[in-house]
Amino acid sequence: MTLLQPATPTERRPIDSDGHYYEPYDAFTRHIETKYRSRAVNVRVSERDGLGRLYYGDKKAGLIRVVQCDYTGAPGSRAGAFLGIHDDEDPGGWSQPEMISAHDFPAMMHRVNRLELLDDQGLDGTLLFPSLGVSVEHELHDDTDVLYANLRSFNRWLEEDWGFAADGRLFAAPMISLLDVEQAITETERVLAAGARLLHLRLGPIYGESAADPRRDRFWGLVQEADIPVSFHVSDAGYHELWGAQWGELPRPPLQYQSPFNNYLAGTSAQDTFANLILNNLFVRFPHLKVLSIENGASWVKPLMKRLDKVAFMTRGQAGVGGPIEGRPSETFQRNFYVCPFFEEDPVELAEAIGYDHVLFGSDWPHPEGLEQPLGFAEKLVDRASPVETASVMRDNIAGLIRVDA
């Protein structure tokens, strides 16, 4: 497969659409504005075990038990649990047998080491998403100004330590909240000017509102004009509080102690979000928007498209917040969405539903539930997809979206 055996160090090598870093303690505090310092996202180290705990001002975080850079599993160390290992062979379930410190693996936390690792992994580049950061917006949503101050600080740290398009190989996604459209536009304009190639948005409703509400059209117009994709990476959509509590579940369970049903609920937020955007005609108003679904899996794609078409037919003429539904929702999904399946899923089956030109390769490195060796993703394409189709999934689709070859 010539794509995976380039003639030069970066020629035609794959680009990972689901890469991560682990944040240092000062990711939110290094650049926080003085007036918000007392309410910054911060880490406090326990005298008992030496591990950092996450706080929002003086409030302990609900979702994150221990800061991940201190206490996490090695890359790919839990991958086997997702590749068909039965419970009787893996009695520990999700429990992590060995824990490490990300500080001992520099590529998890430092740009220069990550660039070296990309060459070792046979990659041209990678998109980079938060590990801890995806939990922040929901925790701060009831204080809008504090939320945006923390996101601004985080994005400045991200630009400084990783870069939005560093060396043309590391593409970090700044975090944008749609809670306040004016502040969202201001921060989006700033990160675009700094070279951002994509944006990260949180899944889920906006606390009684839709992201597709026409009142947010100025933001979507800015994104469409900039011709960059927006990514919805798995994140804290607030479903535990919004829905879990209504079923008698804990409203803020730590990630490691979610009940089976709470975990199930969290996994439905992506399809709910995408259905809301489509059925409220966001892509009728902005037909050239490009949406990336990252680390949300893909098993729901075909059922969702079928259901969207059905509800559109049954409610034709009735209006949502974006007016009566226009067009065929499944075709909108196929045109405007790009999906990165879990590595244990079948990318060929996904391509049959949305086309090879809308499937993305992702490893989730360095998370324990991802792939230790990212190019292992290509094994499911060998002998099943053509060289052109394989190149689309492994590199060309995301390269075009973030303008790597420009």
The span between the termini is 24 Å
Low-confidence stretches: 5-10
Annotation, overall tally of beta strands = 12
**Major sheet: size, sense and barrel closure?**
4 strands, parallel
Please count the helical segments. Answer: 13
Approximately how much helix is present in the residues?
25-40%
Question: What can you tell me about this protein's structure?
Answer:
The protein is an alpha/beta fold. It is about 30% helix and about 10% strand. The chain is built from 13 helices and twelve strands. The strands form four sheets. Strands 7-8-9-12 form a four-stranded parallel beta sheet. Helix 5 (about 215-225) links the parallel strand 7 and strand 8 (about 230-235). Helix 4 (about 180-195) runs parallel beside helix 5 and helix 10 packs across helix 11. Residues about 5-10 have low confidence and may be disordered.
Keywords:
globular, three-stranded parallel beta sheet, 32% helix, 406 residues, alpha/beta, four-stranded parallel beta sheet, single chain
List the helices and strands and how they pair.
Elements: E1 15-20, E2 41-45, E3 52-56, E4 59-60, H1 111-121, E5 125-129, H2 136-140, H3 144-161, E6 170-172, H4 181-193, E7 199-201, H5 217-226, E8 230-233, H6 239-242, H7 260-266, H8 269-279, H9 282-285, E9 291-294, H10 301-314, E10 319-320, E11 323-324, H11 329-336, E12 337-339, H12 347-354, H13 387-401
Parallel strand pairs: 1-5, 5-6, 7-8, 8-9, 9-12
Antiparallel strand pairs: 2-3, 3-4, 10-11
Helix pairs in contact: 4-5, 10-11
